[in-house]
Design goal:
Protein name: RNase Sy
Order of helices and strands: HEEHHHHHEHEEEE
Keywords: Disulfide bond, Signal
Number of strands: 7
CATH class: Alpha Beta
Distance between the termini: 30 Å
Helix content: 25-40%
Family: Belongs to the RNase T2 family.
Number of helices: 7
Signal peptide: 1-20
CATH topology: Ribonuclease Rh, Chain A
Pfam families: Ribonuclease_T2
């Protein structure tokens, strides 16, 4: 049975804030959706019912000094084509390339603080705003269920808060550090690619994408999701292969 980790992140506070911005996140006046609309299926419905022609990928990264020592850091929440090809970075809706995203996010200080902790820029805190803006422009605006027309009572920047709040919630629910620790895979050791994949598969039911840098140093882990009824993220199979060698152990460095 799938476990849900209820760590220190106050995601309920984030979701409460987002919910307070509108009466409903689910009811749609502009589009009638099939029952249990599911992305990448014959029952996907329109672009507000499930992300148009895409799954959604939560990419988490592991680098020395990036984020807490006992947590993977978020890299992105991005769409991925149903046919398995990765959706490239692109500005899908330039009209929502909001200036000064930093100030928009600071309206919810809890959300901002958690992003600073768990979604930091690789180039340091001074570049967080630039990094988050790029993720929003190139990935957030490409997830069609976040378009303003898909909210029954849209208020300004509701799409932004929902995108970043959803990523934090998924990061907490799919706590890779805890999942791996439960399988006795811990920083400072070296383990096979099969061991990494099996640990995560035992939790999600599906094989993730595990990538390495320098050939055998753990870099990123991607979990793929189909989206049901607009905002229910369900793990599914990876459509991209792991890049780490199966012949050599993967180094899981200490932070």
């Amino acid at each position: 049975m799938m476990k849900i980790f209820l760590g220190a992140i106050s995601s309920l506070a984030i979701l409460s804030f987002v919910n307070a911005l509108a009466t409903s996140l689910i009811t749609k006046d502009v589009e009638t959706c099939p029952i249990n609309a599911l992305s990448c299926s014959a029952n996907a419905g329109g672009s507000c019912c499930s992300p148009a022609s895409s799954r959604v990928v939560l990419a988490q990264q592991w680098y020395e000094g990036l984020g807490p020592a006992n947590s993977f850091a978020i890299y992105s929440l991005r769409p991925s084509h149903c046919d398995g090809t990765i959706t490239p970075w692109r500005e899908c809706d330039p009209s929502r390339n909001y200036p000064d995203l930093n100030s928009i996010l600071r309206v919810n200080q809890t959300l901002y603080d958690e992003m600073s902790t768990y979604w930091p820029s690789f180039r340091g805190p001074a570049t967080n705003d630039e990094f988050w803006s790029r993720e929003w422009k190139g990935h957030g605006t490409c997830i069609t269920t976040l378009e303003p027309k898909c909210f029954s009572n849209y208020t300004q920047y509701h799409d932004v808060y929902t995108y970043f709040g959803t990523a934090l919630q998924l990061h907490k629910q799919y706590d890779l550090f805890s999942i791996l620790s439960d399988a006795n895979i811990t920083p400072g050791g070296s383990y096979s690619l099969d061991a990494f994949e099996e640990a995560i598969r035992s939790y999600t039911g599906f094989t993730p994408r595990v990538s390495c840098r320098q050939g055998s140093v753990l870099n990123e882990i991607w979990i793929y999701f189909n989206v049901r009824n607009r905002d229910q993220y369900e793990p599914t199979y990876s459509t991209a292969r792991s890049t780490c060698s199966r012949q050599h152990p993967i180094q899981f460095p200490m932070k």
